[in-house]
Amino acid sequence: MVDLLAVMAHPDDAELLCAGALLASAANGRSTAILDLTGGERGSWGTASGRSAEAGEAARLLGVAERRSAGLPDGSLTSSPQAREAVAAHIRDLRPTTVILHWPEARHPDHRAASELGRDACFLAGVANADIEGEPFRPRKVVYALAYAEHGPKPTVVVDISAHMERKLEAIFAFSSQFEGKTALGDVFGGDRPIREQILAYHAYYGSLIRAPYGEPYGTKETVRVADLGELDVSSF
After folding, report:
1. Whole-angstrom Cα distance, residue 163 to residue 168?
2. Distance in angstroms (rounded) separating the CA atoms of residues 125 and 127
3. Whose CB has fewer CB within 10 Å in the chain, the N or C terminal residue?
């Protein structure tokens, strides 16, 4: 059983989108894991075997309890019955309390499909009579990673990753085939600065929303409950 599971389309998505939260949870004694839905085998750079090795090194840097691949086809993810059942089997086996998914309106088609597929699989995993290996289980919470979402909604919460920013960068650049020498990749835009500087600039902005050096933004479909308005964090002035 893991506390926090990132279900992402490709190896390196978890590093870019939610490595800080994974590191922060691990530092608080929680068990974390990553489920890559594909091997990223149709990516523009590197090879499938090389990317697998990079994913293993990144997982070591993040201290996750486990990193798996669902083995679904890169470039053609869909929330098909077969794909839902395959991912639901992993959900039943890992039994995560919280699942991190892609933002549903992400730019990359695989990311959009991964978001829908991940949420559908979380629901299906809890259906008692579904023909899926393992005991029925449904995560308690689903959150959506909003990092680099150009037209995304205002975050519901931002995780303070200031103490983990350098390790997050190490995990990202473990994927040297994808990021070395780049000034932009995927949703990380911003001009001609090295991509490391672009990533730092993005997370500095998210951090500013919670008055911290660096942050990672997340959204929920549910309203967040607080017990006492007197304990709300982040100064208004």
Report:
1. 10
2. 6
3. C
In a domain, 232, yes or no: no
How far apart CA 145 and CA 142 sit, in angstroms, is: 10
CATH number reported for the structural domain that contains residue 62 in this entry = 3.40.50.10320
Number of domains present in the structure of the chain: 1
Residue 236 forms part of a structural domain: no
Distances (CA, A) of 1 to 83, 148, 197: 22, 30, 36
Token pair recorded at residue 116: 């829908």
Name the residue among 57, 65, 55 with its Cα closest to residue 29: 65
What distances in angstroms separate CA 158 from CA 112, 202, 231, one per listed residue? 21, 13, 17
pLDDT of residue 44: 67
Distance CA 218, CA 60 (A): 24
Domain for residue 227, yes or no?
Answer: no
Domain hosting residue 170, numbered range: 4-221
- pTM score: 0.94
Compute the chain's Rg from CA coordinates. 17
| Residue ranges of the chain whose pLDDT lies below 50 | none
The pLDDT value recorded for residue 158 is 97
117 within 8 A of 79, measured Cβ to Cβ: yes
